[in-house]
């Protein structure tokens, strides 16, 4: 590989990395709204489940059930209405990948 083609390949790879970073940050920011109630530091940690590290499909199904009214809720049914399907999927994926119960918000 020539020097120019190596440089071009590195630039393409760097662009891919930077493109993924905003998506990950966006998912993290969306999931930050869950932290006040679902982290170990929440006011009622035993009454409100911790959701970090649960499987993404399980989190997403639950969020969709709240939004459709198929799951009983006090406020979750109202909260999830403000998110698109894509945003709920980003939240579920971020939380599932987060071993930190505080969702990496420290």
Ends apart, CA distance between termini: 43 Å
CATH hierarchy class name: Mainly Alpha
Tell me the name of the CATH homologous superfamily.
Cytochrome c-like domain
Secondary-structure element sequence? HHHHH
Largest sheet: none
Number of E-state strands: 0
The chain-level structural class is mainly alpha
Radius of gyration: 18 Å
Q: Strand percentage, roughly?
A: under 5%
Explain what the structure shows.
The chain has 106 residues and is mostly helical. The protein has one domain (21-104): Cytochrome Bc1 Complex, Chain D, domain 2 (Orthogonal Bundle), CATH 1.10.760.10. The chain is built from five helices and no strands. It is globular and about 35 Å long. The chain starts with a helix and ends in a 9-residue tail after the last helix. The model is unreliable at 5-13 (pLDDT under 50).
């Amino acid at each position: 590989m020539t020097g120019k083609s190596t440089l071009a390949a590195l630039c393409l790879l760097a662009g891919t990395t930077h493109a993924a970073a905003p998506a990950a940050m966006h998912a993290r920011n969306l999931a930050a709204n869950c932290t006040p109630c679902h982290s170990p530091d929440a006011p009622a940690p035993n009454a409100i489940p911790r959701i970090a590290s649960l499987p993404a499909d399980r989190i997403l199904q639950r969020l969709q059930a709240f939004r459709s009214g198929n799951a009983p809720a006090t406020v979750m049914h109202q909260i999830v209405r403000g998110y698109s399907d894509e945003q709920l999927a980003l939240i579920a994926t971020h939380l599932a990948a987060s071993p930190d119960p505080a969702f990496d918000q420290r």
